[in-house]
Please model this.
Amino acid sequence: MKQIIDTVHHFFIPRHTNNFTAKLLHHDFLTIYLIVAILFGAGIKHMQQSGNILGYATDVTVQKLYELTNAERSKINLNTLNYNDELAAAARQKAQDMFAKDYWSHYGPEGETPWQFILASGYQYEYAGENLAKNFMFSDGVVKAWLDSTTHRDNLLRKEYSDVGFAVVNGVLNGEETTLVVQMFGKPLYANDTVAGGTPKPEAEKVVAQKPNIVEQPAAKPIVSEVLAYDATPQQSSFFSTYLNINMVFFAMLMIALILDFYFAAKLNLIRVRGKNLIHFLFLGFIAIGAFIIIQGSIT
Amino acid sequence: MNILVKHLKTEVKKHAFDYLLFFTAGVVFLMGLNIFRGERLLEFIILLSFVSFYIIWGIYHHIIEDSLHLKIVLEYILIGFAILFLIKVLIFPF
Model:
């Protein structure tokens, strides 16, 4: 037990065994962090190229998106949505079209609409809607961002919908590797009204589609992009969540070492040739908050 | 705990401008990331700028304090670049 406490002290507290600087903040340890960080990056790239990380860029999965969407609907006693393969195919086609024509919007540069992808997939709708997201790291981040936006929230929680389809597609958009998430909602034409809590209503004669806000488009650039992967079958992947957790533990460990080192150096009145612990601490703090912003992508 | 607070206060009071400058840069860094959310290249440029600022801040601060040493510069570079490579994986997960 004494040996364990001694080791912990050696790593975190300045004293004679570590030349009066927490061992975790020594140059040799800092060099190890740098080497490990470089190897981590190189290793992940290598694993992706050899197909060991399922070919996915992030932890966004159709399964999780589907579960979270239905969970949010259930919270306000709305009907849960059925997973529809035709809508999923439409979502995939939409994502591939955005990569092929290099745009990021509900409407394409040549006037393509979400509804034409839905109709082309063979799904005849009475109501339809679309939500888009890009460069998110985790599924819950995508759904949370949609819920935080009034228009996307209204779309996600629209009581008229009965079906949903998703596509998570990686490709090159505006010259950048991008992960797109397309969510397509629908209610089939002439379907029985099974909306929970709702009263049956007469079938609409006219096809109605909910059109989300239009975002201004850049001029069309006919860049053909390679679709790296699409999440056709619901799967779970937790690689990036593990990576994020490792990072958080590392940051926390370093910050604790900085605080303890600062405290004991002040207590013992140590004069050392060292950088400023306070600024290292602030730097790590800002980076940690920044990391949480980075894992959030954008929606439209 | 009192010692910690006392030393923190002394340190910040002594170099109020330097710390305020760094804090402002940190806030600008977070605002930049928030504004350009989802734009991977810009996110990386913002991160790289902040890491560079941190290293330059370290050199500048220790010059002013007349305590600049190669070991100190190396410390800032090692921490800065270790963090840069760790976060780069989150920005470019491909």
Q: What stands out?
A: The mean pLDDT of chain B is 93. Residues 40-64 of chain B form the longest helix (25 residues). Chain B has four helices and no strands.
